[in-house]
Amino acid sequence: MSLYKSWFDSDTLRQKLLWWVLVPMVVLLLLNIALAYKFGHDSADRRHDRFLFDASKILLDQLRTNQDRVEFNIHGGALNMLSEDKKDQVYFSLSGWQQGYQFGYADLPTPPGELSETPIYYLANYAGHPLRMMAAIMPETDVSSGRVVVIVGKTLALHNERAHEWIWRVLPSQVFLMLFAGVMVWWGVGRGLRPLLQLRDEVTSRSSLDLSPLPEQEVVAEIRPLIHGFNELMGRVDESLALQRRFVADAAHQLRTPLAGLKAQAELAQRLDDAGEIRHSLQQICRAADHAAHLANQLLVLARAEPGTQDSMHELNLAALARSTTEYWVQNALNKKIDLGFENVDSDCRITGNALLLGEMLNNLIDNALRYTQSGGQVTVRVSRDDATVNLEVEDNGSGIPDIARERVFERFYRVLGTNQEGCGLGLSIVREIAHRHQAEVQLLSGAAGVGTLMRISFSAA
Questions:
Q1: What pTM, to 2 d.p., does this model score?
Q2: HSE on the CB side for 355, CA within 13 Å?
Q3: Tens digit of each residue's pLDDT (9 = 90 or more) over 103-134
Q4: 3-state secondary structure of 71
Q5: Is 249 helix (H, G, I), strand (E, B) or coil?
Q6: What is the 3-state secondary structure (H, E, C) of 311-346?
Q7: What is the longest distance spanned by two Cα atoms in the chain?
Q8: Cα–Cα separations (whole angstroms), residue 137 to 59, 68, 124, 152
Q9: How far, rounded to the nearest angstrom, does the alpha carbon of residue 282 sit from its chain's CA centroid?
């Protein structure tokens, strides 16, 4: 029942198709009726005019010249022919061309224009009735001067019946054809939409975890691209959900380690009596809490950097942002006895981006460089411009990243083995996500003289 109810909804494809088919058909029906009326009216005019011309000939035959006097004697047969149509009244006038005789109705309306031997047909009113009339100068050998002015008129009752007869001949068949076409279109559209209804039933019956592609060959060609695009969308959604599930599982695993350490150290501290040992356990609890907090903060930043999140983009100076961020890490670098420097040659390093996300990206790059650079090493933050590109570089002379691990370091929770450094493995993942949000290119290269690591992020200049 709900399906049939939807057919009458104004937004259904069935009704719209029916509307766009029937409206032109109604216009064509009205045009056909107008043409039929015109053809019928023209046909009635021709028959009416033929009668007037024939009647003029009959009337002329009734004129005779008797001793130089013109007489008009209409016999019964001629009168019957003129009055054969009982619905109409015939009026006539016969008068000599430049002669003084006159027969019939002398006050009949004359035609507009000048009389000639070519019959003139026109409409006029006489005795309170509309008439279609004919007037002409016609030759007649049986009268003096041989030329007679003939005016004949007839009312329009039969004329109108003949004109309307055409409409009533065309209208029923046309209306029937229009109704039949509407029913056939209604039925045909329903047949054409059946594959869509089947697809709808298949989609609604699926579970929320079933993202398998819909069959494309069972639908009409016009809808096949839509189904193909829908299947591609479902494939991307399935891939995104798989990444999210893996991310949640990895995040839970990573969080479980510091939380387990917190619980173990807290339980140990409860059993200890020595103040020094308790202080050591509290220090371990503090380190585990810091690690958990850092991991949670990185997860939040990564979630914010995911595609689809709404963050405002505006024009900013990347050099100024990099300088202020680098200054924030100076004390941390001094504590580790690392030379942290900043280089900027071109002051016009404007790009379009989000300052908060770019700051987090640079924080992760500097943090990684300081973590994996030995005491006495160097870390340099560099901003430069090359034509239409603004480059942000963070270079260190630390242990570097092996070639076989350079692609995997951007994976979430991946860490290079043997580094013995604390971390959660999300820093470079965050860097790549933020760079992609800004449509920037990320390059992982070797440092100067092949020592250390050089991270380069290339942005389009504003």
A1: 0.45
A2: 13
A3: 888 889 988 888 888 899 999 999 888 999 99
A4: strand
A5: helix
A6: CCCEEEEHHHHHHHHHHHCHHHHHHCCCEEEEEECC
A7: 168
A8: 13, 21, 19, 12
A9: 64
